[in-house]
């Protein structure tokens, strides 16, 4: 399986309507956790609990420019 970061949106005009878009797709060894959103800078940060290569990662809120910070 693959890990994903998804964006959930709710259409408040319909009681059961919501939308989900995959923003970032990672490998099956990746385990994204502990998300922080910086809406002013249009960035998201998360920890990746990959057993072989744990990291702190960053991407634009739209999922572009995925970067390993540490």
Automatic annotation (TrEMBL):
Q: Which SUPFAM superfamilies match?
A: YWTD domain
**Superkingdom in the source lineage:** Eukaryota
Q: Which UniProt keywords apply?
A: Lipoprotein, Receptor
Q: Which residues form a coiled coil?
A: none
Protein name, as recorded = Low density lipoprotein receptor-related protein 1
Q: Which organism is it from?
A: Nothobranchius kadleci
| Lineage of the species this protein comes from | Eukaryota, Metazoa, Chordata, Craniata, Vertebrata
